[in-house]
Please model this.
Amino acid sequence: MKIKSQRDFVSGVMFVAIGAGFAIGATTYSFGTSAKPGPGYFPLLLGVILALLGALVLFKALTIESDGGDPIGAIAWKPLLYIVGTVALFGWALPHLGMFIALPILVVVAARAGDEFHWGEALVNAALLTVGSWVIFIYGLNLTIPLRPSFLGG
Model:
């Protein structure tokens, strides 16, 4: 069987592998029922859906012809490193600096990954996402996420 789109083939394999990995990893948690889902319910279903979407992309890569085989281009290192670094920074910053500082840092630094960075847009997005996250996670779901820096009694 001939690969007709290299990009779709690699993307499909990646989605199937990640989805299968999450679905398999979720089997170590209790599944529960639809009425009372356990901790493994959501990751299992999400992993299966991701793997199925990857299989669909793989099928497309093997059946639908594309111009020149749709080759894979160069890796965009700047956005990749910015996004991965920002997520790692957020993982450290949330328990130490709290959501009100860590989330705006995440949004602004991640926005720097793009070619069209504007401070005003990044700060508005940071403010809206911080308020929205507070409403959803703290007020709505009553999660215990630190809001202020730990050294201020957050």
